[in-house]
Write a structure and sequence with these properties.
167 residues; single chain
């Protein structure tokens, strides 16, 4: 075997090694992506669970949250302030879930039930009144989601820019 043949064999072995390395790296990136998606979802669920535990562990807080969703104008001033803070926390969790879905960290099978629940909450009178004031504090993508129609074709809100208010 002459030097040219050895060189060709060396190039072939080197090419196979490069391909094997690229396949290995692709597998590692895929596993890393799955781990990142899982961690993002776990963090979002933990945040929602902590909020739910906060509201659900105290009967007075649970009643305040429920009553605020139904009609915040019937709450005393200090209760209305407390309810606004609680609801802001809930909506920030919702926005995070929406964002995780938008960037691909939550697939449709997981996002679908969350989206339905969020839209249901935003159909309550208290949530609609709160959203009218707080809407600008949220991303345009989340605003579009909140104000879009559900799968049933019933709008959560009419177009706020038109001044027509809640549906």
């Amino acid at each position: 075997m002459d030097i040219m043949e050895l060189g060709a064999i060396g190039e072939l072995v080197g090419g196979v090694a490069v391909i094997a390395t690229l396949v290995y790296l692709a597998i590692q990136v895929r596993h890393g992506t799955r781990a990142a998606r899982s961690a993002a979802y776990q963090a979002a669920v933990t945040s929602v669970a902590e909020f739910t535990r906060l509201v659900g562990s105290d009967p007075a807080t649970a009643a305040l949250f429920h009553n605020g969703l139904q009609d915040p104008s019937r709450l005393a001033d200090d209760q209305r302030i407390q309810w606004a803070f609680l609801f802001t926390s809930a909506v920030r969790n919702f926005e995070n879930l929406h964002y995780q879905h938008e960037i691909g960290s939550l697939d449709e099978a997981i996002w679908g039930p969350w989206a339905a629940r969020i839209r249901g909450i935003f159909r309550t009178p208290g949530a609609r009144a709160w959203w009218t004031e707080q809407r600008p504090a949220y991303s345009s993508a989340f605003q579009a989601f909140v104000e879009d129609s559900s799968g049933s074709g019933v709008p959560v809100f009419s177009n706020p820019a038109s001044g027509s208010g809640a549906a």
